[in-house]
Each structure stands twice: as C-alpha cells, then as structure tokens.
User: Fold this.
Amino acid sequence: MAQTAAQPADQNPMHIHSLHTRTCGELRRDNIGETVTLTGWVWRRRDHGGLIFCDLRDREGLTQCTFDPEHAAGDAFHTAETMRSEWPILVHGTVIARDPETVNAKLATGEIEVLVDHIQVLNRSQTPPFQIEDGIETAEDTRLRYRYLDIRRPEMMANLRLRSDFTFAMRRALHDRAFTEVETPMLFKSTPEGARDFIVPSRLQPGSFYALPQSPQLLKQLLMVGGVERYYQVAKCFRDEDLRADRQPEFTQVDVEMSFVDQDDVMGALEDVLSDAFAQVGVDMPTPLRRISYWDAMDTYGTDKPDTRYGMHLHDVTQIFSGSKFKLFANAAATDGQYVKALNAKGAGTWPRAKIDKLADVAAQFGAKGLAWIAFRADGSVNSPIVKFFSDDEMAALKAEMQVEDGDLVMFAAADRKLADEILGGMRCHMADALEVPREGHDFLWVVNFPLFHWDDERKAYASEHQPFTQPVEEDIDRLESDPLSVGSYTYDFVMDGFEAGGGGMRIHNADLQMRVLKLLGFTEERAEEQFGFLMEALKFGAPPMGGFALGLDRVCMLLAGKDSIRDVMAFPKTSSGSDLMSSAPSEVSLAQLKEVSLRLM
Ligand code: ASP
Assistant:
C-alpha cells in the first residue's frame, strides 16, 4: 500500500508527478515540519468554534487537515467553512504533531495533522445518496446505481487493489516461467463450455453472427498447434446463463495452456505458479496440493468442490439397513445402484423439533423428496419419526458408524449414488453454516479424474463433464461407444475453500478421437465440421500433446478478500437479471441500428 514516508521522493515510485506531493495515507511523525500538498475528498468536517477539522480522503487513507483562521492565508478559512462532503479539494500546509489527547492510534496518520495555509476547491459535489463509509447497509442496487461512489469506499477500493495485486502476481509468476500472454478475439465463434452464447450480428455480412467466447478454449488449443508452447491470458469470458446467485454474464479467467506435457507436468506448473502468486499477496499455499478423486470427493463430501476445513463426512450406511423394517432404506439397499447415506451434524440434535422439520425444505433444494433424521437429545433420549422402525442392532451399528454422541443430528438420504451424495453434500454445507462451524485459513486441493461424460436428463443426452475437448483415459477409449459413462478423463479442478476456483484437463490432439467424442455428444459430422471444422483441421497438422487450465479470477479474489459475492471484487458488475444499473444496459437500440445489421424485432 502506501510507501513509507521516510523514503526520499525521488526514490519513491509512488511519487510520479501529480497535483499532490503526498498521499492522505502516508504522513507520520517523521514528517512533522514538512510542507505538503494533499488532494482528496472532504470526508468528515467538524467545526470546533474557531477551528475547522476536515478528514481528507484519497485512495491511500485519510489525513486530518486543520484550518486555523490565524494561520490560513486569504479566504482559506472561509472556504473551509463552506465546503461540503465529497468535494474534491487540494490543500497546502505544514505537517504538525497532534495534541497528545487527540492522537488516534487506530489511524495510520493518527499522530499528525496538516495545518492548512492554502486550499483550492477542485469541484463541488451533490450530497451522495449513501455515506462513503465501510460497512454501510445501503441496498446493493443503490450501490450499483452509483458504483463510482461505492468504489470510493475504502473497503471497495481495497478489494480492487487486492484484485490488481493478485492479477499482477499471476501475470508475473507466469511470465517468469516463460508463459507468453496472447490476446484472443472477442468476436469469434461459439466455444462450447456448456452455456448459451452471446451473439453479435455482423453488419458487413447480413444474417451472420459472431459469438462472444465462453472461454478462449479453442483458440488456446490452436496456439498450441501454432507452437506457442506456454500460453496465458487474463481473459474475459461470456456465458449467457440464468444468473444464479453468484454468476455474472461476463467474468474473468486466468487462462493457461501448455504443450509437450503430461497431466503431472501441467498440475506441477500450476501449483508452482499459484503458490508463487498467492505468496505475493501474503497467502501460503503449501505444495504439493492434496489430490482427491472425483468419486472420493463425492462419496465423502457429497460435492466435487469440498471444503475440507471441517469433517462432517458422508457415510455409506446401506448395508446396515439391508434387512430393515424401514422400507425406504431396505428397498434402497435391495436395489442396484441405490444407497442409504448418512451425515452427522454435531450440535443440531438439540434443536427444537420445528427447526429440524424445516430442514426438509432445505434438502428439497438439493433434490430430496423428504428428509429422514434422528435427533440425539442432550439428555440421552432420541427423537425421530423413523427410529421406531429400527432394530436395536441397526441402531447400534448406526451409532458406531456415525460416532454418535448426545446432541447429534443424523440425517439420511436414500437415492442413487449421485443424488444421495448431492443431497447430503448440500446439507453438509448448510449445517456447517447453520452451526457456524469454524473454517479458518484457506483450503486448497485438487479434485482429479472426473468422468468424461455425465447423463443430462433434461436433454436426454450425454454431456461433457468438463468440455468436449477433454482427453479420455487411454485404457477407457475402447469403451467410448459401448459404455460412455464409465470412461475416465484427464481432468483436475482447483478447489479453494469449498469453491471451484479453477479447472482444466489434457486435450484430445487427434482429429479422429475428437470426432468420436463429438458424435457421442450428439454432433453429426456436418454440424461438428460447421462448428469446429477449423479445430479438426488444425489437429491434423501435427497438434502436440497439450493440456491447460483456467483460474476463476473473480472467485479467487472474492475468497482472498473474504467476501461472499464476486460482485464485491468487480468494478462494474451486473445484477442477477443481467442489468447494469448505472448505465441501464442492456437497453433498446434504434430501428436504424437494427436495420444496419439486418435485424427486426419480433
Ligand atoms: N476452458 C475451460 C473453462 O473455461 C478451462 C480449461 O479446460 O482450460 O472452464
């Protein structure tokens, strides 16, 4: 942040020429006696009968400026009387020590103040619609409508600067390892990452459209064919999705690709780069990172992006209930592919019945039809709608498996493997929040070995687990057509604090294999040719083995900043309905503009 004041101006890189000689965050006791010029916004102004105090704020901090009619030249004192919050001003004066009783130990500049002799009002300001303060409770819509004022708040400014520091650290870490930053076009063709494209009509070619890239995936593969060998880009990606809670239609990835490598090479390089970049913002990421396979993560945590800072593991209790009188569990145990899984939320067993009953609504959000549970009360009694069906042996086995103590709440899901995991994985996160389970420091790991495909029930088709260019595991290629869901892939997700913070994989570099995979995804040869012909062709010109990764920059910065929303680390984010409240985008265009691109509204 601010340079130390002791540094002479000519050695201090902060001191490029500007209207001020010092920033509002840097003056200390050592500067007493110096004459300085500061610029900033009037923050708080206090009139102390005869003396006026003004906290002047710039991006580095705040400095108390004092106007004494005895000292101020010309009409400086009068100007100070009339100035208002958020006026930008320039002051010239002398750094003096504060009276001991007014020293503010909480403030970096709290030992000094600037006794002003000259003031220049640079502009005036309307009264801002909210206080330029940290921790305000203003509705987010208002903050977004006046985002430029929101950014003036120190905590927002700190977020933007943290983001800048981390982005720069990533760039430096990659550059130091001989990665070349290459820009790829925004006006391009559809790149399938599983979302809808934003499309842009072409004026010069009526009836034709560009698609904004969902990621630079195809282009970075082509750069590998082009021999770039190590590529990166801080890349904007565009996906026209329904904006669930914390999604944005445009977001930023640090996109990376390497060639002449195997999966361990790529993961090793990424660990090296990431730990270097995190270290540069003061975060320790010990390497090598743990690797958890996709199915282990699902089985144990019920998610492919587990937060492992706390336990609350999922247990498979199917066998315990194989002969149970509780039909729901017994039937699941008797059906191939069905499981009974359980989760122990320690501390929730003392919750009142009504509160426990409400958990069924939460479980429903993760796909459950209901929620079976047993509350082990603090007094040793048991409360549960299902326990009457359990034999003593079943209960004893369950208690042993789930390490039950008084005060525990055991919850169940009986369903196919994935759904049972998803329900309890969702409940695990919910209960951790509800019980305020402590999660300290950051948690980094890899989830590896995703299946190549999953079955998309809505589309009634196979879909790529990562994206359509992922390399299948060699031994499984024979089963591509006969048993697609059993085919593994060379893939890895970077998980940070229970969020998918990045992901990637090795790529297919053989045109025939690529076509086989595209066909399984429902492409006809013609459509594949039309959409990806240029890639297929390139693969035939000596494409090297390659693999890569993309880091979700917004999300990582959000976690580094300790925020709950990526909007807090984006300068100008959109609302969940995709609007920019400041500019009112998206908005109508004129008929003439539509005509130019040969479009008519329906
Ligand atoms: N293109 C992928 C994505 O955006 C990342 C990768 O596989 O490199 O998710």
Remarks:
- The pocket of aspartic acid is lined by residues 193, 215, 217, 253, 466-467, 503-505, 548-550 (CB under 6 Å).
- The first helix runs from residue 76 to 82.
